[in-house]
């Protein structure tokens, strides 16, 4: 999709038509790898696109059709098939020319139309913000790319040509387009191994983001090139002579660091241009894999290697499939020079990444290997989409995975895995399998027990320990690094919260129905199908599960739904039980209410115990149904609850404690002590001996005072247990006063 569209009202001039024809002739000259019928299909697509864009000009004044032709030329460089070239020529037809997808299917077939559709921005949908539009557009493109990698290859060719001609666009657009290219498209190109495109997009973005810095650095590099020409020439001569003596047939290319990578190195490491030593290097292309290691031996005999500057990306390839041997040597005059050794096939993959599948698929009998490049990441996009329907959240996950740096770690069975730098134990567990991640409880790194937030390092051997009853912890979201892990954890937590809210909603609706004299809650079966259909029409929900979830979340009031249900049941001849109704209403405000919702602590995220008053079993409690927050439980005397009752009384429901709560509950304890050595330890010991767990402790900053307050959050079973804890603490030397702390009082 071009960002440089400039529609013109007039028809194209003969000179413009000639320019377009000349550029199409240049494209046709590159199609010698296609069959005659495929070339004819490409020609048909060109004629259609030329007609569709007739009268449109680019900002440079050239006919608009020159842009799709340039995109197709780049795709032809990668030897993409005829369908991809046709899609490249037609890629702006839907967006800019009013051509519909069915039109393209009819003329060129569904595969070409799908490719074009994957590249088309979502112009017809309305979004709240430009960022939301952009996020949704990227989501669509990336998912289309996961299904067919040709989508992103055409998109990258499109972006490359737009960046090459960005100088013709209004200056106001330079920053936005260049930043987007640097943040999104260049990392995608790198992730897919398209290193030539990656470097070009970085340099073009740098040139338009920082024109003055770019120009200054370009001049410095040109001067440096002149000064170092003699050194490079001498090194190349000595290296060629050494390989000839060793009898190794090699092809040697000079390599210069890109301007952007020089700038980034200077910026990150606070270096001057003169301090950047590895600007120049050489690529040594050999015939066989074994020759890469032989070539390195020859070079190490010729010049001394720099310690710590050797990398074997052949034995352990980069995430994007890149393979080479890297070594940095000290050449004549103390100059550091990097050498890269690789085979012809490795060189094609290094420069073209996933596009190497098309370049090499005819010649390389092991073409499957190149076809698999990047597909693991592409598949993970589909997995993330399955868990994440929100476009902005999806894009956040994907951006996390675009970091090119990687660490290489091992499973206990010595299988190697590449993880993004900064990845943790939990990321590793989810990379193996989502079930492993969900059930992770602990881990060992190199045989030693470590916390789950531990970052991975090169060479670590990681053993994950799981438990069937375990589930993801919301706290993991604070430290996981990969989009896959983040999306899986969020999906699990959302699913669990909805299930718990549905269970709570069912209990609440059953309770509200009992208060109206109906028991039990009608089941979702054929007998009650008409009843539930009418209730769902009344509530606006799609299913019974949705309705119960909304009741549990407080989006629907249970008593209102119950009253409607009683009316419908009455129409069907089912009358309320007067005895049940009177019993429920008579005991509604008794200490043990049969109509109250019973809580035992197993309700999960759907029920929250208010932090303002920290209710525990034995307290008189009331339930407030927050809008979309589920049920919030307060003590009866909580001032926050009283304010809510005054303002929003219809959202309060009767709740009570179950006879046997299944877990401890947190509450606050304020302990005033005489300041002195070891007093905190004595108080903590007194709590521990009463079998209370301390989950948090805070103390006054003014430690020089004679008396200070210690604020504890402790977990107890009920009020009786709390009283025992308080008695134990009171008996401790140095303790002046103990009281329960409630911020809502």
Architecture overview:
This protein is α+β, with helices and mostly antiparallel strands and 745 residues long. The chain has five domains: 5-192, Hypothetical protein af1432, CATH 1.10.3210; 220-371, Beta Polymerase, domain 2 (2-Layer Sandwich); 375-472, Ubiquitin-like (UB roll); 492-657, no CATH class; 665-741, 2-Layer Sandwich (Alpha-Beta Plaits). The chain contains 29 helices and 22 strands. Strands 3-4-7-6-5 form a five-stranded mixed β-sheet. A hairpin with a 5-residue loop joins β8 (406-410) and β9. α7 (110-119) packs across α9 (150-164), α9 runs parallel beside α11 and α10 runs antiparallel to α11 (195-209). The model is unreliable at 1-12, 122-128, 359-373 and 587-594 (pLDDT under 50).
Number of helices: 29
Tell me the name of the CATH class of the largest domain.
Answer: Mainly Alpha
> Could you give the count of β-strands?
22
Stretches where pLDDT is under 50 for at least 5 consecutive residues are 1-12, 122-128, 359-373, 587-594
- Percent of residues in helical segments? 40-55%
Report the sheet-strand fraction: 15-25%
Strand order, largest beta sheet: 3-4-7-6-5
Q: What is the CATH third-level topology name of the largest domain?
A: Hypothetical protein af1432
By CATH, the superfamily of the largest domain comes out as: Hypothetical protein af1432
Distance between the termini: 61 Å
Mean pLDDT: 79
Radius of gyration: 35 Å
Morphology: globular
